[in-house]
Write a sequence for this structure.
């Protein structure tokens, strides 16, 4: 059975869902979650009247419900991830992606 994030990815109308199938399961689940987050943020930005923050809060509530955790716990996980991304070793690994994107 698909997770909510896998369903969202599959229903998005892109080929990402099928492309992600070649990844190991743990990485595939992480990519589905990341893709779902990016879709939610994009949808928030696109909302009429600048309702972005309300849409993001709805997304946090949905994730909390899906995983049985609180919105506060999601914020803690988010903050921890941002701290890790700011570490030089990790940010250097990601720098190549940004450079590749800038060249495209």
């Amino acid at each position: 059975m698909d997770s909510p994030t896998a369903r969202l990815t599959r229903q998005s109308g892109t080929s990402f869902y099928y492309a992600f199938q070649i990844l190991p399961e743990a990485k595939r689940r992480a990519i589905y979650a990341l893709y779902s987050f990016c879709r939610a943020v994009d949808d928030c930005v696109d909302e009429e009247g600048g309702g972005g923050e309300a849409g993001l809060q709805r997304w946090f509530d949905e994730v909390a419900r899906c995983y049985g955790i609180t919105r506060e716990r999601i914020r803690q996980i988010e903050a921890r991830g941002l701290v890790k991304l700011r570490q030089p070793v990790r940010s250097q690994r990601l720098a190549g992606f940004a450079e590749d994107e800038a060249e495209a």
Notes: Residues 1-68 form one domain. The chain has a mean pLDDT of 78.
